[in-house]
């Protein structure tokens, strides 16, 4: 089982690649939030994912991966 530090490091790595993929696709945080069913004003949710401060919910991982052309593996 991973330590809290290892889990945080993994979230930060994943967030880094999510941000890079979003930028590569030319999408804004607002567009990502809306595409995943969040309020258009809910910029903080994808921003927290990218910062590694919050885990992407399991039900949002596959749609996010599809949107950004990333593997859905956590």
Provide the helix percentage: 55-70%
Report how far apart the termini are: 15 Å
Report mean pLDDT, rounded to a whole number: 90
Shape: globular
Low-confidence residue ranges: none
Order of helices and strands: HHHH
Radius of gyration, in angstroms, nearest whole number: 12 Å
Q: Tally the helices.
A: 4
**Strand count:** 0
Class by alpha and beta content = mainly alpha
How much of the residues is beta strand, in percent?
Answer: under 5%
Largest sheet: none
Please explain how this structure is put together.
The chain is an all-alpha fold and 74 residues long. It contains 4 helices and no strands. Helix 1 crosses helix 3 (44-51). The model has no long low-confidence stretch (mean pLDDT 90).
Which secondary structure elements does this structure contain, and how are they paired or packed?
Elements: H1 4-25, H2 29-35, H3 44-51, H4 58-68
Short description:
The chain is mainly α. Helices cover 65% and strands 0% of the residues.
Structural descriptors:
single chain; 74 residues; mainly alpha; 4 helices
């Amino acid at each position: 089982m991973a330590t809290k530090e290892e889990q945080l490091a993994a979230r930060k790595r994943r967030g880094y690649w999510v941000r890079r993929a979003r930028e590569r696709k030319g999408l804004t945080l607002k567009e990502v939030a809306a595409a995943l069913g969040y309020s258009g004003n809910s910029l903080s949710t994808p921003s927290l994912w990218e910062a590694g401060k919050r885990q992407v919910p399991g039900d949002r991982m596959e749609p996010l991966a599809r949107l950004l052309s990333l593997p859905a593996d956590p």
